[in-house]
C-alpha cells in the first residue's frame, strides 16, 4: 500500500506541473486573442459608430481598428444586413452576438476548471503525504522522526503547489470573463441602437 501512496504523491506533483503548463498556454492564447480583438482604437471606433447612429442620416463607417476587431466584424455584419434590407435584423444581430460570445469564452472553462480543482489536487497530495508520514512513524518509531518531518514537509508542499496554480488561474479567468462581459454589453448596446436606427429609417 505504501508504494501506491508514494506513487500517488508523485502523480499529484506531475498533475500540478501539467496543470500549470496548460493554464499558461490558455492564458497566452486568450491574451493574444483579446489583444487582437480589442485594439487601442476600438473604444474610439465604438464611440464614433454610436454617434453616427444617433446624429447622421446615413451610415458609412470607415475604420483602421482592424478587420480582427470584434466591433468591426459586428458593424460590418450589421451594415450588410441593412443594405440588403432583410427582415429579422434583431434575430440576425442576436445570432452574431452569440457567435462572438462563443469565441470570447472559448477555453475559459479550462481556466475555471483548473482554478476550482487545483487546490483539491494539492490537498490530495497533502493527505497522501500525511499517510506516508504516519506510516513511517509507525514503522520507524521515534528514531524516524527526521524522516517523518520530511514527509510532512513534502505533504504541505503539495497544498502550496495547488494554491500557487489556482490563485493566478482564478485571477486570469476573472480578468477574461470581465473583458468578455463588457464587450458583450457593448454589442447589446450597438444592437439596440442599430434596431432603433432601422426603425427610424423605415418611418422616413
UniProtKB/TrEMBL annotation:
**What is the species listed in this Swiss-Prot or TrEMBL entry?**
Leptospira ellinghausenii
Sorted alphabetically, the Gene Ontology BP terms of this entry are: protein import
Determine if Membrane is one of this entry's keywords: yes
Q: Write out the entry's keywords from A to Z.
A: Cell membrane, Membrane, Protein transport, Transmembrane, Transmembrane helix, Transport
Task: Tell me its family.
Answer: Belongs to the exbB/tolQ family.
Mind telling me which InterPro entries this protein's record contains?
ExbB/TolQ_transport, MotA_ExbB_proton_chnl
What Pfam families does this protein's entry cite?
MotA_ExbB
- Record keywords: Membrane included? yes
GO annotations of cellular component type = plasma membrane
Q: Where is the MotA/TolQ/ExbB proton channel domain?
A: 69-188
Location in or out of the cell: Cell membrane; Membrane
**Domain of life per record:** Bacteria
Topology with respect to the bilayer: Multi-pass membrane protein
Q: What protein name does the entry list?
A: TolQ-like transport protein
Transmembrane parts of this sequence:
12-33, 114-135, 155-176
Amino acid at each position: 500500500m505504501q508504494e501506491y501512496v508514494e506513487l500517488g504523491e508523485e502523480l499529484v506533483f506531475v498533475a500540478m506541473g501539467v496543470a500549470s503548463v496548460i493554464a499558461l498556454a490558455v492564458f497566452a492564447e486568450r491574451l493574444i486573442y483579446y489583444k487582437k480583438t480589442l485594439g487601442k482604437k476600438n473604444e474610439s471606433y465604438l464611440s464614433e459608430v454610436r454617434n453616427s447612429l444617433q446624429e447622421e442620416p446615413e451610415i458609412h463607417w470607415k475604420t483602421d481598428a482592424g478587420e480582427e476587431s470584434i466591433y468591426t466584424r459586428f458593424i460590418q455584419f450589421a451594415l450588410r444586413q441593412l443594405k440588403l434590407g432583410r427582415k429579422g435584423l434583431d434575430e440576425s444581430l442576436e445570432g452574431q452576438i452569440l457567435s462572438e460570445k462563443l469565441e470570447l469564452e472559448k477555453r475559459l472553462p479550462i481556466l475555471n476548471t483548473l482554478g476550482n480543482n487545483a487546490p483539491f489536487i494539492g490537498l490530495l497530495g497533502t493527505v497522501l503525504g500525511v499517510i506516508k508520514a504516519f506510516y513511517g512513524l509507525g514503522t520507524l518509531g521515534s528514531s524516524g522522526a527526521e524522516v517523518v518531518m520530511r514527509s510532512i514537509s513534502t505533504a504541505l508542499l503539495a497544498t502550496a503547489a495547488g494554491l500557487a496554480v489556482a490563485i493566478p488561474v482564478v485571477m486570469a479567468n476573472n480578468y477574461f470573463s470581465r473583458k468578455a462581459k463588457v464587450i458583450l454589453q457593448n454589442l447589446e448596446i450597438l444592437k439596440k441602437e442599430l434596431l432603433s436606427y432601422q426603425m427610424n429609417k423605415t418611418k422616413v
